[in-house]
Amino acid sequence: MERPASPAPMHILIVEDNPLVASGIRAGLELHGMDADVAASAAEARAHLAARSYDACVLDLGLPDGDGLQLLRGWRAAGLALPVLILTARATLDDKVAGFHEGSDDYLTKPFDLPELVVRLQALVRRVGGRASDRVRVADYDIDMASGEVLRAGARVDLSRREWALLAALVQANGRTLDTAQLHDSLYRLDEEVGSNTVNVHVHHLRRKLGADLIETVRGVGFRLGVRPAPPGA
Fold first, then answer.
1. pTM of the predicted structure, to 2 decimals
2. What is the predicted pLDDT for the residue at 6?
3. Does 233 map to a domain?
4. Which residue of 43, 44, 59, 157 shows the fewest CB atoms closer than 10 Å?
5. Are 82 and 182 part of one and the same domain?
């Protein structure tokens, strides 16, 4: 029997020029089941975003090659909807207002408690996905996005970690088509070496367990859920 699925790892971009602070945040997030990449400058942050997609960003404001607010302003002007949590020592009301004015989704001041950072990031991703609750229903499956539990008629469906990550990415897309590169980013870390056909293999395995109609192939584009997610009981 396969191991029960763990919650889908959130992919977080940490933009922080202090290596001790950055490594501490990354280690803490990974202890809570998240994957994290670190950028020590605005230029590195742009490079990371060009290479992969993220669920959220933790953004420091004092960067060596520019102010974090300028970076955020440029992202929003370009239409980037990535949830951003500003994490900074700037603690005045004017600082916070400026952060939200430039497009921040949340604002946390240093020093901070790691558990609070974790729950704030989880709430950001949940809101962006349009979910008031972590429990959703897809076809005849009840899915808990926080625990990774998948039930059908009350019986648990065992998924591997990769299968769960794939399903969670499709559920969070809420009916949108995700291409192979986007799904690859949901399954693997930036520095992992994997084969070119791995996404298709995991789609095949997931269809075998959950039914061929649950995941649709959009020819020449990618994959999407065949049924839109809905809150349980809807």
1. 0.60
2. 43
3. no
4. 43
5. no
